[in-house]
Write a structure and sequence with these properties.
GO molecular function: glycosyltransferase activity
Distance between the termini: 48 Å
Helix content: 25-40%
Strand order of the largest sheet: 3-2-1-4-8-6-9
Protein name: Glycosyltransferase family 2 protein
Order of helices and strands: HHEHEHEHEEHEEHEHHEEHH
Shape: globular
Family: Belongs to the glycosyltransferase 2 family.
Oligomer: single chain
Pfam family, one: Glycos_transf_2
Radius of gyration: 18 Å
Number of strands: 10
Organism: Phocaeicola sartorii
Length: about 280
Amino acid sequence: MKWYADYLSIYDRPFTQVPQTVINQVKDKIRQLATHAPLVSVVAIAHNEEKRILSCLWSLCENQHTYPVEILVINNHSTDRTEEVLKELGVTYFNECQKGPGFARQCGLNHARGKYHLCIDADTLYPPRYISTIVKALQEKEVVGTYALWSFLPNEHHLGLFFYETLRDLYLKIQNLNRPELNVRGMAFAFHTETARKEGFRTDILRGEDGSLALALKKYGKLRFVTARKARVLTGHGTISADGSLFSSFKKRAIKGLRNFTALFYSKNDYEDEDSNLIK
């Protein structure tokens, strides 16, 4: 059975339709993880994730590791029942009323107590050894941050997704050579907490707060690309749906990738923000 089978069985289901046995199981595991001195802070951001946050937390609290871990959730201006779900589960959470991933991530960074900080998205599922694999990479000499690969939730277009992800991963590995910051996605990004606090997340942009922090962290050490299957997360189809279809998404990114291909061989220390991405 696939590692994500149980989590996927309740993914995108209303909380009221989830078996009480599952809810109790997650509550117990969250309670067992409670610690006064965490080494690792696992910080999820959530905006209207009532139907997905339970799956995410279930996968996180069942992770296999030997570290003292705290799980925090930042409820980012949700208008659905996300906060009610968090209360029912007994997970530590904070409300961030300023909407935007930058505000949510910074709120999490402000409250994290662990030496290592793992950024989490509430619509994403995490494999059994995700935490241990990422922390091991963060403990390597001179590594200040890590980022990992991701796959999309399985659906009827599994063959198309396979080719899409295979070609994308190849592109990311090439991009990693000189522009690792462009590979970073908040759902699979981690770093040394105190180092990140020196820079902080940008809150003046709609998206890209993760890559911007990764770029800023490069002056302190190395960004490690974790390509192991044990760290490959599973996420929703939001980006593909926004493009209309899998083919449209592939076409859009292929054209953009070809246009920018030669630029991949030159490193960059700053990027110009597009007006459309600025919070005004």
